């Protein structure tokens, strides 16, 4: 089930805002009946007409992007900063990011026009595991790693069990590289977890998303997921396997 305005927007007929205007203006029919309520839920079996023209579902597409730092995980930005979809100009479908990476975080980000798939992967109940490599200030002790693994208290609650290990430590530069795997997706979670243990993050990169990795991609590069990868991701999320 998806919101009507979202479905219209994803079919490339209009922007989300324009779709809302069309609905409010009584120009949208669902199964032959005018619908003026924003947020009406529809499924793929409903027939939707916009100004008398039946809309066809867009092909579902799935991409993996190596997001550079200094890019917003969005499809547009008021301040005209670079957005992730700028890196996939060859995609004509209206894709958007699955979850988000911070402006200053680089790494693996999925993009799709499949709302159900995106919801599934970002649903708190099903969140798949993600691995980040963080360069943090200070030398991280074993005890601190254990705190990350057991769960740290953040303002929105204690974090779920995670895995963390030191990749390397530099005493002279007073910094540590830590690999951390989490399966939640709270806002700025990794940065806040390291803040909570007194080791602010200086650099953050997402290396893995479930079984996916960046492979040989360079920063700013993207590739389409294979049908098998899409199937596996869906199965993984649906099974609740973290
Ligand atoms: N955790 C963060 O703090 N930032 C990200 O971009 C992703 C996870």
UniProtKB/TrEMBL annotation:
The keyword RNA-binding applies. Coiled coil: none annotated. SUPFAM superfamilies: Alpha-L RNA-binding motif (SSF55174), Pseudouridine synthase (SSF55120). It comes from the Bacteria. Keywords: Isomerase, RNA-binding. Residues 2-61 form the RNA-binding S4 domain. Pfam families: PseudoU_synth_2, S4. Its EC number is 5.4.99.-. InterPro entries: PsdUridine_s_RsuA/RluB/E/F_cat, PsdUridine_synth_cat_dom_sf, PsdUridine_synth_RsuA/RluA, PsdUridine_synth_RsuA/RluB/E/F, PsdUridine_synth_RsuA/RluB_CS, RsuA_PseudoU_synthase, S4_RNA-bd, S4_RNA-bd_sf. PROSITE patterns: PSI_RSU, S4. The keyword RNA-binding applies. GO terms for molecular function: isomerase activity. Belongs to the pseudouridine synthase RsuA family. This is Pseudouridine synthase. It comes from Jeotgalibacillus marinus.
């Amino acid at each position: 089930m998806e919101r009507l305005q979202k479905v219209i927007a994803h079919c490339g007929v209009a922007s989300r805002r324009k779709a809302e205007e069309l609905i409010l203006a009584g120009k949208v029919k669902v199964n032959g009946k005018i619908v003026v309520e924003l947020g009406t839920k529809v499924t793929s079996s409903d027939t939707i007409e916009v100004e008398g023209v039946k809309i066809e579902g867009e092909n579902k597409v799935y991409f993996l992007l190596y997001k550079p730092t200094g890019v917003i995980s969005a499809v547009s930005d008021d301040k005209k900063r670079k957005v992730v979809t700028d890196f996939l100009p060859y995609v004509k479908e209206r894709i958007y990011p699955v979850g988000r990476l911070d402006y200053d975080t680089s790494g693996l980000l999925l993009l799709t026009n499949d709302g159900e798939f995106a919801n599934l992967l970002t649903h708190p109940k099903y969140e798949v595991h993600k691995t980040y490599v963080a360069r943090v200030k200070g030398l991280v002790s074993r005890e601190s790693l254990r705190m990350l693994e057991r769960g740290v208290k953040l303002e929105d609650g204690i974090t779920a069990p995670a895995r963390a290990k030191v990749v390397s430590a530099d005493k002279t530069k007073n910094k540590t590289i830590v690999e951390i795997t989490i399966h939640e997706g709270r806002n700025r979670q990794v940065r806040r977890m390291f803040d909570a243990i007194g080791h602010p993050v200086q650099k953050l990169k997402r290396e893995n998303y479930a079984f996916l990795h960046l492979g040989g991609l360079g920063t700013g590069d993207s590739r389409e997921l294979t049908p098998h990868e899409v199937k596996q991701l869906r199965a993984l999320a649906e099974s609740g396997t973290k």
